[in-house]
Design a protein that fits this description.
By secondary structure, the chain is of the alpha+beta class. The chain has helices at residues 2-18, 31-35, 56-72, 104-115, 118-128, 169-179, 212-222, 228-235; strands at residues 43-51, 78-88, 93-100, 131-141, 156-164, 189-197, 202-209, 239-249. It has an 8-stranded antiparallel beta barrel. Helix 3 (56-72) runs antiparallel to helix 5 (118-128) and helix 6 (169-179) runs antiparallel to helix 8 (228-235). The N and C termini lie far apart (55 Å).
Length: 256
Amino acid sequence: RRLGSSASRPREDSWLKSLFVRKVDPRKDAHSNLLAKRETSSLYKLQIHNVKPECLDAYNKLCQEVLPKIHEEKHYPCALVGTWNTWYGEQDQAVHLWRYEGGYPALNEVMSKLRQNKEFTAFRKERGNMLLSRKNQLLLEFSFWNEPVPREGPNIYELRSYQLRPGTMIEWGNYWARAIRFRQDNNEAVGGFFSQIGQLYMVHHLWAYKDLQTREDIRNAAWHKPGWDELVYYTVPLIQEMESRIMIPLKISPLQ
């Protein structure tokens, strides 16, 4: 009994300490206004395609032929941030991340122009025959995260996706605005986003590592920094579900 009581004491102290942690700003305002970058008006689209296993090579080849043309077309206010295949996680999966400079008007402009693009129309039809399912989300980037910019490789990428409890997005932002400083030493932080349309209360953190062992070493090192364990302790209860994808970039991806 003494041992059990002694072991539970730190957890009880931590719980009591949590009662006095800085509270979320009670202002009535949209999450996008409180959490997103104010100096940019970029909107991001995350596409996740589950590909028929026998079609993955053909799918990749098709994407490598068509997606760069959209990325490089000056009349389209969008850019391909990164494109990957999932290595560990759901198999035979493709992940694409696009940025639309100018927010929703830019998205509408690109979609309108692509509907008039016969090559893209043919691409979508051929691509559709290769897919089992697909989904997308429209995202904004957190103000305190790095801007996702092209980088040289080779790297592996981890997309960590969190389904938060409704009503906790600002609280998550408050904690991660402090937590991100613990994960900057090795330039592994690529971008952080939260959903606006699609599955709501979703957060995506994108990281880059040289390999799986480097990922393990960097993540373990964070636990030796004072304060990291406390921030993890407070953010875990905000999560309903979480998923990790380890991804390999395609040759056309600006994030290599």
